[in-house]
Amino acid sequence: MHIVVCIKQVPDSAQIRIHPVTNTIMRQGVPAIINPFDLFSLEEALRIKDKVGARVTVLTMGPPMAETSLRKALSLGADDAVLLTDRKFAGSDTLATSYALTSAILKLSEEDPVDLVFCGKQTVDGDTAQVGPGIATRLGFQQLTYITKIEDLNLDAKEIVVQRRAEGGVQVLKTKLPCMITMLEGTNTIRFGKMDDMFRAARYPLKTWSKDTTGAEETKVGLKGSPTVVSKVFVPKPLAQKATMIEAEGGSPEALASAAVEAIFGAQPKLADDLLARAAAGL
Amino acid sequence: MVEKFDAIVIGAGPSGNAATYTLAKQGLNVLQLERGEYPGAKNVQGGIMYAAELEKIIPDFRDDCPTERHIIEQRIWLLGDDNYIGTNYRSEAFNTDAPNRYTIIRANIDKWFSEKIREAGGLQICETTVTELIRDASGKVIGVRTDREGGEIHADVVIMADGVNALLARRAGYQEELEPQNVALAVKEILFIDPQLIQQRFGLKGDEGVVIEIMGKVTKGMVGTAFLYTNKESLTIGIGCLISDFKHGSCPPYKMLEDLKNHPVIKPLIEGAEMKEYAAHMIPEGGYKAVPQLYGDGWMVVGDAAHFNNAAHREGSNLAMASGRMAAETVIELKQAGKAYTASNLSAYKKKLDDSFIMKDLRKYRNLPGIMHENKQFFGAYPDTITAAAHNWFTVDSVDKKTKEKEIMKSFVKKRSVFGLVGDAIKLVRAVR
Amino acid sequence: MSEPSKPQGRKFQLPEHLKVYKDVWVIVEQERGIVHSVSLELLGEARKLADKLGVEVGAVVLGAEGPDLNRICADSFSYGADIVYKVTDPVLSDYRTDPYCRVMTDVVNAYKPEIVLLGATTLGRDLAGAIATTLATGLTADCTELDIYMDNRSLAATRPTFGGTLLCTIQTLAYRPQMATVRPRVMSMPERDDSRVGRIVEVFPQLREDDVVTKVLNFIADREQNEAQLAFADIIVAAGKGLGKPENLKLAFDLAKVLGAEVGVTRPLVQAGWTTFDRQVGQTGKTVRPKLYIAAGISGAIQHRVGMEKSDLILAINTDPNAPIFDFAHQGLVGDALTILPALTDAFSRRLSVNRLAG
Ligand SMILES: Cc1cc2nc3c(=O)[nH]c(=O)nc-3n(C[C@H](O)[C@H](O)[C@H](O)COP(=O)(O)OP(=O)(O)OC[C@H]3O[C@@H](n4cnc5c(N)ncnc54)[C@H](O)[C@@H]3O)c2cc1C
Ligand SMILES: Cc1cc2nc3c(=O)[nH]c(=O)nc-3n(C[C@H](O)[C@H](O)[C@H](O)COP(=O)(O)OP(=O)(O)OC[C@H]3O[C@@H](n4cnc5c(N)ncnc54)[C@H](O)[C@@H]3O)c2cc1C
Ligand SMILES: Nc1ncnc2c1ncn2[C@@H]1O[C@H](COP(=O)(O)O)[C@@H](O)[C@H]1O
Q1: What is the interface size between A and C, counted as CB pairs within 8 Å?
Q2: C262-271 pLDDT tens trace
Q3: Which pLDDT score is estimated for B37?
Q4: Which of B24, B126, B206, B279 qualifies as a cystine partner to B44, CB 3.0-4.6 A?
């Protein structure tokens, strides 16, 4: 059983700010972390490893500094790590990214066939949720997104049963390996690694692959391989003007509340009618 | 199987980094453990970095060390309620190829230092907290335990560089509890600001920088100081007071910092800046008398954990680096001589410290902390009287100078008796002699 | 997403062979006979885009033949479609990526729309990511604004990035179709017009269940569970950390009861365990668009704001007159939520009961 977990190093979005003067994103000094959504997938992969035995390889495409994220994943218990890095990948959109990652997964499969690919639900920087489906489609793997639970995994029959968050309900799906899975957030909690894994991670000789290592075609990666073009980046304009402040003589809560009710009904007569009709009907 | 190293260093601040790097560079099998997510994640420093000590460890550090600005001007200000009196020293001579002092952002420096350690072959593991020292039956330290499963690690010698709390030494019974009058609590903020504004407001070009050390009424009569440093694209502003004073005082630290930022002479300097990070940290300020036992069978303690901090001159990281280096050199010398890391052999470390600026400076100022603590007039009455005197002196109002002198003298004596004044002068002279 | 590259922006002219791509499509999302409201919102949006381009609106309805599907086709016309591509096969009765992706790829290749829109729902995002790969074209996720640059008839899809701190506009210039998923309840719901009619193009893909690897064993509908139906509520009383402690959440529930409203909360409340995740409004929670949003003790952080700023009327209650929420709320009330909420509950119930007596 060989599981590949795709992780992405992202800036900690909680700490991103807009530069007050230049209106640009300040990435400087913002710590880089593993995309938080990827950790739910990594943990699920590690649980499968604990339960039925598996080799877990983490894969990332990014600049050389993404190494820290891979080591972190190793310290949590992943067995191997591959850093896919090449200037030629720069500027890849989701189509090109999923192509590049697929080329690396295919190469990994040559040594040890890959049965499961885990991706995060989405990233916090790109936030597209497209790379996982892109990889599944290219590999011809069954695509299982927004999974809340792996109910059963039968290695002999190569069958897996999962619960999937759908609109308006939960689907229970049964399918065959190989598959690509993205886990929904909050479905598990990432573990605290063991001391030996910390040592192994610190000493692990990272595999660094370039475009040529995986044999990816030049026209399908980077800017050339990306159909989308960012034509404009801008700061959202402040919505409405400031709020109209509700005031009342004396400023008692009661007076303010009455004033607020009148203000609401005044601004939204239709809503007021609905509410009054509803009340009249004794609902 | 339990891993075994020549040495374990606990902590990745300046002292731990200096020790680890020195050991790794000499080819020792050294492990550095840090509880923060990455080196620098938990560290707070004003910060000014003094080149001399780093240069001893990494002579060509200027090639790639991410410093902010080199300092060409030092200001010392005494703040009144809406005024200040102070001295400035600025010199072109500080614009050399090898400046002596730099403003820094600690997280950047720590990260860079860690890189150097890895290049030198040191093994560094973060996000791992050492919970206790492991000792054999004879009491000799033989390793550490961490908060992770399978967390026991062995080493011939353990260097504790875990900062001001020195929890490990305390837990092992090598140090007493911290005394509130021996530790200051400092809060600081990094404020983002357009570099052009920094250049304009402080009259700087290129990477030149200014530091302002501040005393006076902003500490509300408590023992403490404040500072404002220029970085490349930000300002660092902070203030600190003794914990014992905060305990009694009514003004919490963050409020004090707010007041400082709103002080009429400070506000124009930081106008338009945006807060980027806020941090609070302790500084060991007990000085010479608070220095604990520094070594024992299989262990040494360095940096803030050893209380190596010169509050009067705001030096800490340089003492940390120097002590870390000296501890490492002691280990290397003993290893080369084939000697064991017994307490008596490790006393060579203490000898190195005694012969260096660390113990010499700490001894020189040994009485200062106590005097400051017991004589609050330095932080309350004096700033007022002195600034009022200056105001009087510089106001041209047809009062003759002789009368002004008399008025000024009288104002001093009114706040404090002649005996008090003379006594204070003597105390200060003694303390810093 | 890529950095700006050549060919750039509006000046780019579409190659001849891609000019045969015409019309704006919406993939109408239905599960078990229920249409997701975002699909109807998108039909309204597609209408505007198509009118600008002078082309038609196509709705793609997939599923098993039956009365439900016919009703959905009719509804698609009512909400703005000119053509409905009705794709029927028993295999399509439940959503599964693989057969849906195969069929959609074929339909797009056969009829060549220039724009394909889907809701940014679990189904829409799952399917869009797959088809964009088989079609090897550009896809912009989670958009909040769509427009056409008339210079070269290209779709300008705008979406938040970095958690809403910035917006970016993305284009697919040299590829067709141009695809986008759009956040639910960001576009306004078009007026229903039952007099509208159009053409139906029937497609029979002839799928074989044996070719589909993934089987649906069960579907557990949310309605059978006790989840909050926040997303569709007309009125939401939302509570933030300003309420101080978990017990005070009751004040919001009390008001909600009088108004027949749902209770929403900010993320810190969910993280602190005051209530469950299904009540969280914002970037990582639900996007809502009620007629009235009462925000009590909420600062108005950008991550919360993106989930509720499209509400018709926002009333903010906050002790801090400088709270950012007052920058975008319609009405503001500076005061302690702990006293204002009960007073509002009283005031509303008095106002509403007066009417009952009178009526
Ligand atoms: C506001 C402020 C301003 C200052 N300004 C200056 C200045 O301008 N110039 C100057 O030279 N000095 C300054 N100092 C002092 C200087 O920061 C310290 O003297 C110096 O950081 C001490 O270095 P250290 O390595 O001993 O300890 P620290 O820097 O505190 O490092 C200790 C490290 O050990 C880690 N650690 C602790 N416990 C454990 C454990 N159990 N297991 C694993 N890891 C652990 C911590 O996470 C930390 O990384 C300032 C201090 C403060 C607070
Ligand atoms: C990646 C990421 C995703 C996030 N996603 C979401 C999300 O989906 N949804 C979300 O909500 N947040 C989200 N957040 C968190 C968001 O940034 C804010 O922290 C959060 O919205 C703040 O919640 P709050 O307004 O309840 O609390 P606070 O910001 O603490 O505000 C409390 C407010 O209550 C006021 N107040 C205090 N006492 C009273 C009183 N008695 N009466 C009236 N007012 C009072 C205060 O003045 C203050 O304005 C996310 C953050 C990150 C980093
Ligand atoms: N550069 C990358 N390297 C590895 N995995 C990635 C990369 N980009 C995206 N992914 C994976 O695809 C998921 C969805 O990403 P996105 O489509 O950007 O929202 C992420 O959670 C990752 O698991």
Answers
A1: 306
A2: 999 999 999 8
A3: 86
A4: B279
Ligand nearest to the CA of C249: 2
User: A245–C169: do the CB atoms touch at under 8 Å?
Assistant: no
Q: How far is C47 from chain A (nearest CA, A)?
A: 23
Q: If you measure from the C-alpha of residue A119 to the centroid of ligand 3, how many angstroms do you get, rounded to a whole number?
A: 7
Whether the Cβ atoms of residue C255 and residue C345 lie closer than 8 Å to each other: yes
Q: Is the complex ipTM higher than 0.90?
A: no
One-character DSSP codes across C36-73: -HHHHHHHHHHHHHHHHHT--EEEEEEE-SSHHHHHHH
What are the E-state strand segments in chain A?
2-6, 9-11, 17-18, 25-26, 32-34, 55-61, 80-84, 116-120, 142-154, 159-166, 169-176, 179-183, 207-209, 228-234, 244-245
Q: Does domain B3-66+104-176+292-364 have CATH number 3.50.50.60?
A: yes
State whether B105 and A193 contact (CB < 8 Å). no
Q: Which residue on chain A is closest to B277 by alpha carbon?
A: A15
Helix (H) or strand (E) holding B50: strand B48-50
Chain A, 133 to 162: residues with Cβ < 8 Å from chain C are 133-134, 136-138, 142-146, 161
pLDDT, tens digit, 9 for 90 and up, residues B59-114: 999 999 999 999 999 999 988 888 888 889 999 999 999 999 999 999 889 999 99
Cα(B8)–Cα(B6) distance, integer angstroms? 7
Are B240 and B225 within 8 A, CB to CB? yes
Dist CA B275 CA B191 (whole Å): 4
Rounded Cα gap, residues B352 and B359, in angstroms: 9
pLDDT in tens, B240-269: 888 888 877 778 888 889 999 999 999 999
Q: Decide if A19 touches B, using CB distance below 8 A.
A: yes
Ligand 2 centre distance from Cα of residue C251 (Å) = 18
What are the start and end residues of each CATH 3.30.9.90 domain in chain B?
A: 181-284
Q: Please give the structure tokens belonging to residue B136.
A: 């054999």
Question: What are A140-190's pLDDT values in tens digits?
Answer: 999 999 999 999 999 999 999 999 999 888 999 999 999 999 999 889 999
Distances (CA, A) of C11 to B166, B386, C30, C151, C153: 65, 70, 38, 7, 11
Q: How far does CA A237 lie from the centroid of its chain? A: 27
Looking at every residue in chain B, the average pLDDT score rounds to 90
Type of residue numbered C278: D
User: Across the interface, which of C141, C156, C291 has its CB nearest the CB of A231?
Assistant: C156
Using DSSP, state whether C224 is helix, strand or coil: helix
> Of the candidates B159, B125, B112, which has an alpha carbon nearest to the alpha carbon of residue B306?
B159
Rounded Cα–Cα distance for residues B298 and B334 (Å) = 12
Token readout for C182 is: 């759009």
Query: Where are the domain boundaries for CATH 3.50.50.60 in chain B?
Result: 3-66+104-176+292-364
Ligand nearest, relative to CA of residue C163: 2
Query: In the numeric block, which tokens belong to residue C115?
Result: 């724009």
Q: What is the pTM of this model?
A: 0.83
Q: Which two tokens stand for residue A189?
A: 């909690």
Please list every residue in chain C whose beta carbon sits closer than 8 Å to the beta carbon of residue A279.
352-353, 355-356
- Atom 39 of ligand 2: nearest residue by CA position: C242
pLDDT of A13 reads: 67
> What span, in angstroms and rounded, lies between the C-alpha atoms of B170 and B161?
13
Contact list, B191 vs chain A (CB under 8 Å): none
Residues comprising chain A, all counted: 283
Cα–Cα distances in angstroms (integers) from residue B387 to residues A274, A277, B68, in the given order: 69, 73, 33
